[in-house]
Every structure is written in structure tokens, then in C-alpha cells.
Design brief:
This protein is of the alpha+beta class and about 270 residues long. It has two domains: about 1-90, Orthogonal Bundle (434 Repressor (Amino-terminal Domain)); about 95-260, Beta-Lactamase (2-Layer Sandwich), CATH 3.30.450.180. The chain has 15 helices and five strands. It has helices at about 1-5, 10-20, 25-35, 40-45, 55-65, 70-80, 95-105, 125-130, 135-140, 145-150, 155, 160-175, 185-195, 195-205, 255-260, and strands at about 110-115, 120-125, 215-220, 225-235, 245-250. Strands 2-1-5-4-3 form a five-stranded antiparallel beta sheet. Helix 3 packs across helix 4 (about 40-45). The chain is elongated. The relative contact order is 0.11.
């Protein structure tokens, strides 16, 4: 009886389980990343769900960050199972999300930067570099993490109510990366962040408080522009936060006037 049940599991179901395990994800982690239920993933892998939608399969492919070959295999297995086809254009014809994020950052007048899924800074525009006075950090050519900059003693003094801002960002970071904690690069990053005493102190007492609000206001003290009120505006490119763009718009009339003066206001 057991052999009969196994033999009835489709190639698609077996492939989903194989790809998930190969990418080091549990069923629960894949479910979270793909915005599906754990029960649904279990049913897919055991063949109890034999007619998944193309949307579900594409979500799984994104969540697992499949290679081109793996994605082609999954889509082909889906077609054999359901008779449906998923449009899979040649990779060379598409811009990846990182390239899209960089284009948007450099083509907005607002101060903006992009982040990868672990919140490493991916690209800046000149307005953001000037606004946050990070010329020295950008010139170093190193790969910077947003939290490392916020907790940097030299930069920390620029933020009013720094403690509240730091707690909020640590909480938001934990929520946004909750499905990535199994990754070796996440573990390495977390270890690096905890080497900063102030980060370690705040992280011990800070926990995710649910899905972060899409926008919030904070204040900075610029060395020449004075005190500015900034409101965040975040653009997320996929459901699993592969890349995001954060732009900073004026939070009060005074800041709006400064933005107009520097032509940061469209």
C-alpha cells in the first residue's frame, strides 16, 4: 500500500520537495516566504493538491530563488501535471530586481537608496548621500548594512530620538527577515551586528511587533541644513522582499522648503 501511494505522487510534487530541501528551507519557511499556508505546501508535496495555480508555482519559484534551470524544471513539471503553461521569457530579456531598484533610485529626485533582502545597502543617489552625510562611508567602497550605519557612533548623533528609531528599525528588520534566519549569510550578519554593544543591548529587548507600517516620520540634524523631518516611503519589488527602495520625502513645511531649494522635490 505504501509503495502504491508513493508511486501516485506526481513529478511536480516530488520536485517541489526536492527543490525546497535543496535550498535549505522547511515547509513552514517556504510557506511564509511564498505567502501560502504550511498545510498547502504539505498537500502540494504529498500530491493531495494536484491542480495548483500558475500564481502559486511562480510564488514558490521566487521564494526558493531558483536558478534558471531549476525554474524551467519546475514550470515543465507543472505543465505536465496540469496542462497549463507559464510564460517563462529568456532571462537575458529581463532586468533583475536589483537593476530595477538601481534604476529607480537614480531616477528619483527624492533622496533614496535600495536594500537587498538582508538590508545591505545596494545603491544610493547623490541626494541621499548628502542628506545622511555618508560620503566617507560610501567612499570606502565597502558593503554597508543599514543597521550598521544607524548604530555607527559618528552617524548616530545625527538622529533625534535615536533610541526609538533604533528600536523600530531592529524590530522591522527582524520581521522582514523572519523567513531568512536559516541562511548562512543571515547568521553571519547577525553575529556581526551583535558585536556592536548598543545593537546587542537593543536587540535583546526588541521583538517584531507585527508587519511594519509602510511609512513613518523621524528627525535628523544635518550639519548645514539643520533639523529635518523625514517621512519614509518604501517600494517592495516582490512578496519576499528581494529588493526594496526606500525614499525620504519631506515630513514638514520646513523640510519641504529645503527639498525645493536643493531640487529634491519633484
Amino acid at each position: 500500500m505504501k509503495s502504491m501511494v508513493v508511486s501516485n505522487i506526481s513529478d511536480f510534487a516530488l520536485l517541489v520537495a526536492q527543490l525546497r530541501q535543496g535550498h535549505g528551507m522547511s515547509q513552514g519557511q517556504l510557506a511564509q516566504a511564498a505567502r501560502l499556508s504550511r498545510t498547502y505546501i504539505y498537500h502540494l508535496e504529498t500530491g493531495m493538491r494536484s491542480n495548483p495555480s500558475a500564481h502559486v508555482v511562480e510564488a514558490i519559484a521566487r521564494a526558493l530563488e531558483l536558478t534558471n534551470e531549476e525554474r524551467h524544471q519546475l514550470y515543465a513539471a507543472f505543465t505536465r501535471l496540469t496542462g497549463q503553461h507559464i510564460d517563462d521569457p529568456p532571462e537575458s530579456a529581463l532586468l533583475n530586481f536589483g537593476e530595477i531598484a538601481q534604476l529607480l533610485v537614480h531616477n528619483t529626485s527624492y533622496p533614496a537608496h535600495s536594500l537587498d533582502r538582508l538590508w545591505f545597502l545596494h545603491s544610493w543617489n547623490e541626494a541621499a548621500i548628502m542628506l545622511f552625510e555618508v560620503q566617507q562611508e560610501i567612499a570606502s567602497g565597502k558593503k554597508h548594512h543599514l543597521l550598521e550605519l544607524v548604530f555607527e557612533p559618528r552617524l548616530r548623533r545625527h538622529f533625534h530620538s535615536w533610541e526609538n528609531l533604533a528600536r523600530r528599525l531592529v524590530s522591522d528588520f527582524q520581521y522582514n527577515t523572519r523567513t531568512l534566519t536559516y541562511l548562512p549569510e543571515y547568521k553571519e550578519l547577525w553575529k556581526r551586528l551583535r558585536e556592536m554593544p548598543e545593537f546587542r543591548r537593543i536587540a535583546v529587548a526588541t521583538y517584531p511587533e507585527g508587519k511594519p507600517a509602510p511609512s513613518f516620520v523621524f528627525h535628523v540634524q544635518h550639519s548645514t541644513l539643520g533639523r529635518l523631518a523625514l517621512r519614509t516611503a518604501t517600494t517592495v519589488f516582490t512578496g519576499i522582499n528581494t529588493y526594496s527602495m526606500v525614499s525620504y520625502v519631506p515630513g514638514d513645511q520646513h523640510t519641504l522648503e529645503i527639498y525645493r531649494c536643493y531640487k529634491w522635490q519633484p
